[in-house]
Amino acid sequence: MALKVRVITPDRTVLDDSVEEVILPSSSGQIGILSGHAPLLTALESGVIRVRTSGWENIAITDGFAEVEANEVKVLVNTAAKGQDIDLEEARKAFESAKAQLDQVNAADRKAILDARKELKRTRARYMAAGGMA
Fold first, then answer.
1. Can you tell me the distance from the alpha carbon of 91 to that of 2, in angstroms, rounded to the nearest whole number?
2. Do 18 and 3 contact (CB within 8 A), yes or no?
């Protein structure tokens, strides 16, 4: 039995397909979802969603939520991009820049630290989805 997965951002649907398995980056760790999974509502963190059909596909996301019910997974996130649509070299440069920016943040500026960490997670997800950091 197939699992219907939809990844939706405020401005578009990134994925709407039947898959065999999906792995979500939840706030409590990665969650693997197969057909017949119990109903679930979970918060998602910036990371990579992995979906398996005949092979694996990566989707970089930022924070959001996922609902699993009746063999359907609805993922609502702020942004999402398929790994195949992300330029690997551009993603690598953005990730390196975010790492450097975090290293330069004033340790006393908590907001700046949080913002830099959030940007690092976002750029890391895009880099990983594009095939970097294997």
1. 32
2. yes
Beta bridge partners of 51: 22, 57
- Rounded to an integer, what distance in angstroms lies between the CA atom of residue 34 and that of residue 39? 12
What backbone torsions phi and psi does residue 90 show, to the nearest 5 degrees?
A: -65, -40
pTM above 0.90, yes or no: yes
Q: Which domain holds residue 95?
A: 86-129
Q: Is 38 helix (H, G, I), strand (E, B) or coil?
A: coil
User: Residues 30, 48: contact at Cβ < 8 Å?
Assistant: no
Domain presence at residue 69: yes
- pLDDT tens sequence across 65-90: 999 999 999 999 999 999 999 999 99
Whether residue 26 sits in one domain with residue 12: yes
What's the chain's average pLDDT?
A: 94
